[in-house]
C-alpha cells in the first residue's frame, strides 16, 4: 500500500531543517494534566514534566487555564512580570488571568480538578489523567471519559501491581508512580514525554536517575473564602478546611461559624454532605432544621416572612426549571429512539443485500479453490521430489567438504609440527656451529705453532709428491674424460623423460579443470533452479495467505480495507513526524531477529530497529514477539502483534520485525523457521563472548551466513571491536552500544539507515 499524506497531517507535520546544527521547529507541543478529585498529584506531575523538558534547553510554559476551580500559581512567592507571569527554573509560568499569549515551544496546561462539564479539544498532543491506584476509580473514570469523549493516558499514584494490572485489563494505558512528592520526573513519564517531543521534532533531554529540580516557593498557608454557585462552587459550599495537594500548598477556606445570640434562638443550622460520583464535588449544602415555636417581635416576623417568600420564589423557579429540563430530556429520548429504529431498519436491509452477494461469491470461490487445490497438490508433489534430490546432493557435498576440511586441518597440524622441528634443528645447528668455530679457533692457534715446524717437512714432501702427482694427473685426466662422456649421455636421457612427464601432467590438469568447470556449472544451474522453486513456493504461500485474509474480512462484519484507510485515527489528528519525501517507501520489509541465547538483547535490538524504521518512514511498524521475550513499551507507530486484527494491519503496513529469541528454538519451530526463510533480512544478535558460537554457526550455514547481519551488543572496548572486525572480515556486522528502545538517534539512526537502504535496494 503506497504511503500518502492527507491534509490534516500535512498541516501538523514538522519540517526540520539542519543548518549550522540548528533545528527550526514550526509547530508547538501541547500537553495537558487534569484530575477528577483532589490530592492526586495533577500539579506535581505538570511541574515534573515542565522541569524535565526544560532540562533539554527547550522553551517551556506552564499555563493555568481560566477553567481552574482553585488557582494557585498567583500566590507563588517570586518576582512577577507586569502581566502577572513569572520565570522559575527556566520555565515561564502563566497564572490564571494572565492576558499575555504564550510563545514557548512546549505548552503544559495544569487544569487541576475538573468538573463533569470540562471538555478538551483536539489540539492537545497528549492528555494525562492523574488519579490514585484505587481500583474503585475505574468506573468513575470510564463514565467521565465516555461523557467527555476525551482521549488520554492515566498516571496512577501509589498503585500496587494488582491495581495497576486491573486498570490495564480495563483497556487503559497507564503509568504507575510510587512517589509523586519527590522533586524529580518519574522515568515512565519521561519516556512518554520523550516520544511526544520526538514526534514533533523536538530533542528530548537525556534522563538520569539523580536528575532533580528546585521546588516552587508556594505560600505556606492562606485563608480564602469558598465561592458559592452551581455544582461545586455552583450550588454553594460549606466552608471547610482544605489540605494542600502533595508538595504544592493550596489555599484554605475558613470554617463556617455557628450562629450566636438572637439568630440562634430563631433556628438551628444543620448540614449534610452531598458527594458527586467522581469525587469532584465534596460540597456542603445547607439544610434548614425544623421550625421552632418561639415568640417573635414584629421586626423579626417581617424579616422571617420576607425570607420565606424569597425561598418560596426560588423553589418555584427551581421546580419550573426542572420540569423544562425533564420535558426536553423526554423529547430528546423519543427523537433518539425514532432515529435508532430507522437506522436499525436500514442496517437490516443492507445486511440482507450483503448476505445474498456473499453467498454468490462463496460459491464461485469454492469452485475456484477446488481447481487451485488440485493444481497445488500436483505442484507440491513435484517440488517435494526436487527437494529430496537437492537435499541428498547437498548432504553428499557437505560430507565431502567436511572430509576435505579434516584433511586440511591434519595437513596444517603436520605443517606446524614440521615447522617447530625445523626451528629446533636450526637452533641446534647454530649451537654446534658456535662450538665448532671455537674449536677451529683453538686449532688454528695450535696449527700456527706447528706451521713453522711442518713447513720444512712439507716442502720436501711437496717436491716428492709433485712428481707422483704429475703421473697421477695424467691418469686421472683420462678417467675424467670417460666419466664426463657417460654423464652427458645420462642427462640427455633424463631430460627426455622429464619432458614427456611434463606434457602428460599438463594434459591431466587440463582434463581436471574442464571437469571442475562442468561440475560448477551444473551446481550453479541446480542452485538457481532451487532458488527459483523456493521463491515460487513463497509467492504461492503469500498469495494463499492474502486470499485467506481477504475471505476472512469479507465474511466478517469488519470494515473493508478501503474503509479502514479512510477511518480517522487519533495519531492522524495530533501527531506528526519530520521526514523527507525521498525516504518514502511503498514496498514491504520484513526483518527476522534471533540470538544464540537469552539475555543477548535480541528484543531490544528488534525494538531499536523498529523505532529506526518508524523514524525513517513515519508508518506503523509491527513487532511479532515470542511469548517469553522481553516486553517493550509501544509507541503509536511501534505496535506489538497480539490479535488477528493486528496481523491484518501489519500486512497492510508491510513493515514487520520478527523477534524470535534463541536460534535453536527457531530451527525447531516450523512457523518461526518459515518466517526466517521468507524475511528480507536475518539478524543474529550476539556479544563478544559468543564468538565461538558465531564460528560454529558460520561453519554449519556455509555460504548462507554471508546473508546475515551480526549485531554485537554492548561492545564498547575499541580493542575488542578491532578483534571482532578482524575475525568477521567479509561478513556484515553492526555494533549496537545501548539497550534503549527510545534512544534511536544520531549515529545509531545512521547505522540503521544504512541497513535499511541495503534492504530497500533489493526492490
Structural description of this entry:
With 763 residues, this protein is of the alpha/beta class. It has three domains: 28-199, P-loop containing nucleotide triphosphate hydrolases (Rossmann fold); 356-557, no CATH class; 577-760, Rossmann fold. The chain contains 16 helices and 19 strands. The strands form four sheets. Strands 5-6-4-7-3-8-9-10 form an eight-stranded mixed β-sheet, with helices on both faces. It has a seven-stranded parallel β-sheet with strand order 15-14-16-13-17-18-19, sandwiched between helices. The model is unreliable at 1-27, 222-296 and 557-584 (pLDDT under 50).
Q: What is the arithmetic mean of pLDDT?
A: 75
Main beta-sheet annotation: 8 strands, mixed
* Rg calculated over all Cα atoms: 45 Å
Number of helices: 16
Shape, per Cα inertia axes: elongated
Quaternary structure classification = single chain
C-alpha end-to-end distance: 15 Å
Summarize this structure as a short list of keywords or feature phrases:
single chain; 763 residues; alpha/beta; Rossmann fold; 3 domains; eight-stranded mixed β-sheet; seven-stranded parallel β-sheet; 16 helices; 19 strands; 53% helix; 13% strand; elongated; disordered N terminus
